[in-house]
Amino acid sequence: MKGAGPQGRGALSCFERKRRSAMRAARSYLTPKMGMNKINWMEVAGELDTRGHALLPALLAPAACDAIAARYDEDRGFRSRVVMARHGFGRGEYRYFAYPLPPLVERLRTAIYPHLAPIANAWHERMGRDDRFPTDHAAFLDRCHAAGQTRPTPLLLQYGAGDYNCLHQDLYGDHVFPLQVAVLLSRPGEDFDGGDFVLTEQRPRMQSRAEVVPLGQGDAVIFAVNERPVRGTRGHYRVKHRHGVSTVRSGRRHTLGIIFHDAA
Ligand SMILES: O=C(O)CCC(=O)C(=O)O
Ligand SMILES: [Fe+2]
Question: Which residue range or ranges hold the Fe2OG dioxygenase domain (predicted)?
Answer without folding.
Answer: 150-263
